[in-house]
Amino acid sequence: MKMNDKVLAAFLVSMGLFSSVQAIQYVATLSAGERDQLMTVASAPEAPVVPVDPSVAGSGGAAEGAQRLA
Amino acid sequence: MSLSEKERELIANSVIDNGIKNVLFVGGEPTLYIEDMNDMISRFSPAKPAILMTTNGHFAQSEEAAVKILSSVSGLSWVNLSYDGLHEKFLPEANIGHLFSACGKLKIGFDVLMALRSPMDLLLLNKLRKVGKFPIRIQKLLPAGAARKNDLGFRYPSFDKKVFTAVCPTRKKLIYLCGEGFTCCCASLAFESSSGRFVHPTVEEHLKSDFYKLIYRNTLGGIARKFGLYKAEMPPEYSSPCVLCEYLFRSKYGVEF
What we know:
The complex is a heterodimer.
Chain A: H1 3-14, H2 20-29, H3 32-42, E1 49-57, H4 62-68
Helix pairs in contact in A: 1-2, 1-3
Chain B: H1 5-17, E1 22-25, H2 34-44, E2 50-55, H3 63-71, E3 76-82, H4 93-106, E4 109-116, H5 124-131, E5 136-142, H6 146-149, E6 175-177, E7 181-183, H7 188-192, H8 203-208, H9 210-217, H10 220-226, H11 241-253
Helix pairs in contact in B: 1-2, 3-4
């Protein structure tokens, strides 16, 4: 696995999106262009990005709002 | 839908009697109902909860417009902007900056909530970071309601059995669904069931319900085992606690869900 792929996978795990195994599997599905694009986010300077609870309902704001209070 | 007088009293009394410290208005779009919001806020006043609002920012065509609207919500202390790949299609980028500036001017807290359909939606962070330095909260879009109909839910490449150690992410929160009642569930169980099992007329009834006790005291793995539904391998989408939870209760109750 290339270093950048490991960086991307670690980034996705740190965002609370995937487990380590899932992150590696997901990165493997990306095109070169998609990996480059995601790297621009992963390598950006520190900014307050907070993964909140695992899921939210897409219909209506109630769920999003409820998660906001987490 | 407008709240009835009976609902307004019920919600206000529930906030006061249960010592609720934070009240968050969501929607739909709450800024379309400011008069109703202020009526409710005045009723909460004995409990003095913090007032928060989730909005799509449609009104922030200028900083002045944003200040005007935000100032009109009594005691507003925090604004949460819903912004993601779906909102991006209709919300001018400038509105984000106007809203952020207006909140700064009024000393109201501000953050952005992004619901992700895939990790590629994280590219929006590049845009948001150019607007200003504010917290950005990210969540995975749940395949429920409109998101399910349009196949927009967040996808997982495989099943992560760690989900069985998860607990309901909102089990310590209370949501009031207009015309329906109180629930801790912010997903399919609340929105897609009419059984009365997951949403209750009063806070007290909800907290005493079998559903709430089960959700509050158990991990999802514990619930799966109680229902006889535990399996080591499941479809990838069940990596989401809410999707797994829905599967467990739908399987348990079938047509009576």
